[in-house]
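As the next step, I wrote out a protein sequence along with its fold in token form, included below for the reader:
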Amino acid sequence: MIALYKPQKINFLFPSVMAVLLLSVNIISTLNTIKSKIATILPFGTQSLNIILFSILLISIFDILIKRHKFLKIQRVSHEIISSRVIKEFHDRYVRESTEYYRSKHVFTESDVSDFIRSNYFRRRYRKSLAYYIEGLFAINSYKSSNNLRDIFINNLIVKKLIDIGGSKALDREFYIRN
């Protein structure tokens, strides 16, 4: 008996679709009345208003596509930076000896990781030209993305038990590579 009367997801589909359709019809009819009222106020006709509204729609769709592209690029980079090839490349380029403690240890800092990620994944390929500005639309250059990728890289090394957290130098954490 309980199984017969228990609500299922398919039972909510029809009312949900109907609610969305009713809401969209009401919004469209309201927009048409608002558009006609705005068209009487503005000195240009409804054709110009339609062009303006359509261009705003195209710009917003283009912006959504650019943000989606950047998201997918950051996701691809985040999967790539935890690979052993990238870890070895980072080790060969940035790790240095530290004799701060009783014996020599290999050490790197957070800023080394940030520099590595920016130089390998955020650099721009073109010089000042039209391609440079077009590439700038799709380039990832935010510090938030850089910091998140740096944290992913460091946390991956900590989880794999390859590094230990050391001291800090002027707000820059040091990490020691385990022997």
User: Anything to note?
Assistant: The helical segments are 2-5, 9-41, 46-80, 84-94, 110-121, 130-138, 143-159. The mean pLDDT is 78. Residues 66-177 form one domain.
